[in-house]
Amino acid sequence: MFGLGIVDLVVIAVYFLAMVGIGFWAMSRIKNQEDFFLGGRRMGKIIQIFANFGQATSSDTGPSVATTTYHNGAAGIWSALMMVFATPFFWFTSVWYRRMRVMTLGDFFTKRYHSKGIGGAYSALMAVGLCVLLSLGFISMLKTVQALTPKAESELTVNEKAEYARALELKSLESMDASSLSVAESTRLENLRQEAPRQVFSHMNKHILVWSIVIIVCLYSIAGGLEAALISDLIQGVFILLLSVMLIPFAADQINAIYGGTGLMGAFEALHEQKSMSFFQILGSPKAMDFTWYYIAAIGFMGLITATAQANTFVTPSSSKDEYSARFGMTFGIYLKRLVTVLWGVTAMFAVLLFADKMTDPDLLWGYASRELLGPLNMGLIGLMIAALMAALMSTADMMMITASGLITHNLYRPLFPNKSEKHYVAFGRCVGGLVVLGAAVLTLASDSVLGLLKLWWEFGTVFAASLWMGILWKKTTSKAVWAQMTLSTIFFFTLPLLSPLVPGLKTNAYLLKQTESRSIEQVYPRATQEDVDRQSAAIAAYEKLAPEDRSSAPPDVIKLNEPWSKSYLMPRKSVFWTDGIEVETLDEGTEVAQGKGRLNVLLVVIDKMGFDLSANPYALNETIRVLLRTFLPFVLLIIVSLMTRRSKEEEEAADQTAARILTPVLADGDEDAQLVAQHESDPSLVDDHKLFGPNSHWTFSKWNKVDAIGFGINVLALLAIIGFLYFVVGLGG
C-alpha cells in the first residue's frame, strides 16, 4: 500500500496508537482550564527540554536543512542556525513567562494595559498566525513522504514525462559556467527556474495523509490537553533524534561502496574529494552571498524580539513547575535543536553527494535519500522515518492547537460568555482546538501558496513585540500608544504591502521594477575536485556545440584535478521592492510585460524616494534595512506616543502590578506564591530593590543574581560550542 511494506505500516500504526493512548490517559487528570491549557503547571526540566525541542522542530526542519544544503552547501546549514545568537537571551525571557502567572499571553496584554480589546486583538491575530504556521509543517511533511512513495517511471503520464525532461534540462543548464551560456540558454535557464519542473512524482494521496494526521492529533490533544501534548513531545523528541542520525551510517556505507574508503571518516574524505571546495564554504560562498554578517545579525535580533511575543513560545515555559525549569528547559531545548540541525546538515551533505543529480526539486532530497538508503533493507525503517516525520509535525501541531485554543477560549470567548463552569470552557477549548487543526489542513490542501505566507510569520510578531517588551520593561507605556503602534505597524508592514499589488498598473510601474545591479564574482580555489573537473568539462563540451554566433567571448578554461582554478559567478539581479521578485508575462499577441510579484515593500519605497538609491546596494543590505525598520520602528512609535499621552489611574496600577509580578520570583508552593504576589501587587515598592536603575525608575530591568550571570555565561559557551561543532564537522576529511 502506497509503496510501503507491511512492517513499515505496522510501525506507523503502533506509533499512532501510542499517541492516542497518551491522550486518553492524560484526560483523566484534567479538572480545569489550567490543567487543559497549561498542564497544571507541573512540568519539570526533562519534559520542558523536550517540549521546547519538539515545538521548535517540525517536519519541515530536517528536510528544509537538506534543501538549503542542496542549494548552498555548508552555508545552507549555517542559514538554518541564524537564530542561534538569540538563544542565550531566552535564559531571561523564559522567566518572564513563568512570572507573569497568567493563562495565556493574551491575558498579559489584557492585564498590563487594562484593556480586554488589546488582549482580544492579540489573541485573534495570533490564532490565525498559528494556523498558517501549522500548515507549513503539513506541506513539508507531504513533500517528504511523497518522495518516499514515488511512481515508477513506467507509471508516469505523458505530461509528467514531458515535465521530467524539462527538469533534466534545467539541471544541465544550472551545472554550466555562467560565462559560457549563450543568450538563448540564459533566457531558457531563467524560464525553467521560474517553472521549477518536477523530477519526482508520487502516487501518495495527500488528502489521506493529511486527514490521518489531523485525526490523530485531535484525538490525543483534544482529549489530554497540554499535558498529553508535552508527554507525547518527550516521546516524539526521541523519534526526531532518531531521524537526525539514522540516515548517516547508511549514507556513509553507500559513499564508501562507491568511492572506496572505510568508516565515517572515509565517507567525509570522499565527500571532500568529490565536491567542490565552494560546497564547504560556511561564509563567503557565492551561492550564499545574501547571508552576510550584518543580515545574520539583523535576523538574529529580530528573532529575539519577535519570538518573545509569539504565543506558542509562551506556553511551554508557563507550564513549568518553577522558573528554573522554565529557563533551563527553554534554552537547552533550543540548543538541542541547534545541535540536531548540524546533524541534519551532515545527512544533507551526504545526500547531496549521492542523489543531487537525480532531482531538481531539492525539497524532495530528504525523502528520496530515505527511500534509497533505507528501503532496500526491508526492516520497517521507512515506516520509522515516516513516523519520525509525523512525530516532528505532531509535536508542533499539538502545541499550536492548544495555544490557539487557549487564546480564543480565554481571551475572546470567556469575556463574551462569562461565569460559565470550568468544564464548559474546557469543552469549548477542545472544540476550538480541533477547528484550528482542521483550518491548517484545509490551507494545506488548498494551495502550496501557504509557503509564501510563512515569510510573513517571521515578521508577524513585530506588530505585538514592542508592546510586550515595553510593557514589561517600561511602566510609562500607555494603552493608547499600543493601539497606535499596532495599527500603524499592521498598515505599513502588512496591509499596504498585501493590498498595493491590487492597484491597477502598480505591478508594472517602471520605477517599482527597479532591481539591484548584476555583479560577476570570481572565486579562486586552491584545488580542483572531481566535481569541478566534470562540470567544467561539460561546460566546454556544451560551448563547443554552440553555433559561432551564439558563443560568448571566450570558452571555459580547462582545469586539472587537484590544481588551482577560478570560476566566475553571475550574481542574479533582484527586485528592490517586490518580495517575490519580477516575472515576465507573455501576452496573447506575443508581447512580454515585466511585473512585480508578491508583496510591495512600502518602507523601502519611502527610503528610496528620500534619495537613497537602493538599487546600488547589495540585496542583503536592502533586506537588512527592511528587517531593522520592522524591528525598531514599532519601539520608536510606542515611545513617542506614550510620551504624548497620559495613563489613566487604572493603567498606572496595572503597570505597577505587572512590574511587581515580573520582579517576584516564583515560589515552589502555589499557595505561598499567590500570597507573596498579592502582597507585592498591593505594595509594589516591596520589589523596588530588584530594579537595575533604582527604586524610582520607570524602567524595570532586573538586577542580575548568580543564577542569571552563570546561566547566561553557560549559554554563551553553548552557543560557541554549536558554532565550533559546525566548523569541525564541515572540515572533517578535508
Automatic annotation (TrEMBL):
Reaction(s) catalysed (UniProt annotation): L-proline(in) + Na(+)(in) = L-proline(out) + Na(+)(out)
Keyword terms of this UniProt record: Cell membrane, Ion transport, Membrane, Sodium, Sodium transport, Symport, Transmembrane, Transmembrane helix, Transport
Any one GO biological process: sodium ion transport
Places the protein is found: Cell membrane
Topology of this chain in the membrane: Multi-pass membrane protein
A GO cellular component annotation in the UniProt record: plasma membrane
Statement: the UniProt record of this protein carries the keyword Endoplasmic reticulum: no
Stretches assigned to coiled coil: none
Annotated GO MF terms: symporter activity
Keyword Aminoacyl-tRNA synthetase on entry: no
Membrane-crossing residue ranges in chain numbering: 7-27, 77-97, 118-142, 208-231, 238-259, 293-315, 335-356, 376-404, 425-444, 456-474, 481-503, 627-645, 709-730
Highest taxon, organism lineage: Bacteria
Family designation: Belongs to the sodium:solute symporter (SSF) (TC 2.A.21) family.
Protein name: Sodium:solute symporter family protein
UniProt organism field: Oceaniferula marina
